[in-house]
Predict the 3D structure of the following.
Amino acid sequence: MNKIIFSLFAIYELSSGSRLLAETAARRLIIPTTTSAPATTAGAFTPPAFNIIPNAGNPQNNPNAPVGELTCDFGCRTSLDCPSQCARQRVQLDANGVAVPGTGPLMVTAGNFFQFTCAAPGACAASDIIMQATGRYIEMMDFSEQYAVYGSVITVNNDNPNQRTEIRNVDCGEGFCEGATFVFNGIDLGDFHCSPVDIGKGCGNTCTLIIDGISQTCNSVATW
């Protein structure tokens, strides 16, 4: 009889111990063993993205949005060596004189205190660059390398009849505006800096400035 009781007690102890081990193992599976973030619950709500400032998304959604600057610092020396995206921006004609699709002028909507820089040889060459001024000032137009704007026409239009836009400074350095034509409509001009003609290259050969239809050489209005 005692042997039977002892055997039953032993079986009970083994059964209880197995149950405790199983419960302990189950508890260990619940406790994370790594520092990784818990998995996202399927179907969890994700709030939609929204802009903090106007036009914060893809600029192509509003291509006419004013910009604060345009910096062209890649050069353009030949048709095969022209990484600049500001050069050769004009209508290109094929052998039959038909406009090549996808070619045309570089259009810029210039915001207040806009800055325009061409900082490599040929960076803005052989282009028609048309800027629409939207503010009271264009801070500067800076051409700092030889032939930076060679063969180009830079047009700045202000269509506001109640307020003219002032371009505070155009800097052509040591003749770096050679071959360029500037056409300003509704624009007041501040300083037009060039090297002195008597000791330097002036603004550059054939540099022409047209303000409200009146044409003159760049050297005739330059400040040294």
